[in-house]
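Annex B.
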Amino acid sequence: MRRPLPLRTITWIVTSQGAAQVILLAQIPMIIERCGLSLASIGGLLALGTLCVMVAGPMWGELGDRIGRKPVLIAGMTGALIAQCLFVGLLLTMAQGRLEEADAILALAASRVVYGLNIAAIYPSCQAWAVELGDRKKRLSILSGLSAAANLGRGLGPLLALPAFLAGNLFPLIWLILLPLAALLLTLSLPSRKVAQKQYEPGKKTTLSADALALFATALLGTTSVGQLQVIMGPALQDLYGLSALSASATTAMLLAAIAICGFLVQVGLVRRLKVPQLSFMLGVTSLCTGSILLDTILGSLSAIFGLLIFVMGFAFLVPGYSALLSQSYQRGGRMFGWLALLHTGGYTIGFAVGGWLYERQPQQPLLGLLLSVSLVGVFALIALFLKK
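MFS transporter: predicted structure tokens.
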């Protein structure tokens, strides 16, 4: 059965944002070469935008609970589009030699701040709105569809930019403007929806239950695990498989694209067919732990791809599982999805930092941090299921 048009539109909005993220990351070497920006400056700009996403996500979610999803999405998309136009314009000006890094860095930083503060509205609003539009009994299917849409975007992003990459120029940056513009137009086409009175009651206190806190902990630790795996992938390919830096970078890019597509296929083909969120959650935790152990055991051989595949399948089951469980038990969906977005962003950030730090200090145990965080995922998952029951 096909989804209603509004749900399909929201799905395409999420897909466009996933594609935009990957296109920018793929352009980093070209930006360094053509614009004269240092890697440290680019990293700082990306981190600044990420920090703003973490700060603004819960606030946008709360605002959506009060005034509705469509106004929040329109405001966030408009601000993000303006910020991207400024960001791309500055980079192109620098590529033409008309602006130096020292003169442009503050304006670039301002554009990333505006972008981060506004783009933080997208995922919480889309998730909460999709849940409200759909059948309450099909929350797992709805949320797995949105997660699959984000993975699809991350997989398709490099394909959109590939023709311009081959030409060796900065043309792919235009997608940073076209994608949010398309998302804004899609948002404008969505029907307005009044906020139900029960969604926001100023005098009513809303508190998180103990099982919800445990589910939030699994979200944080799960993305921390993925962040660690992503950051050590390139160095591990060099150290354990003997690849050159260029070959390791190319292989890492292909693996990340394959991971995104694999997650998409699992969520569309398997997760959406499940009826009970607890089952998806349990399958996710089991596969995540199994894949991590297998990956650690056979890392250094080509068979490690099977461990990686099981790990990716676990994460594909896990995210919609705990998202659906949280949406069932927490009344104000916008705020909940806002906090979930904050924890996801924070988890990846922690994973990047901890994974690189541990890899340098314990190269003989490259997956030590991953095994620790996945073990904690299992502990908090058991606590959440016990308290939920």
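The chain has two domains: 5-191, 210-388. The CA atoms of residues 357 and 385 lie 33 Å apart. Further annotation is deferred to the next reporting cycle.
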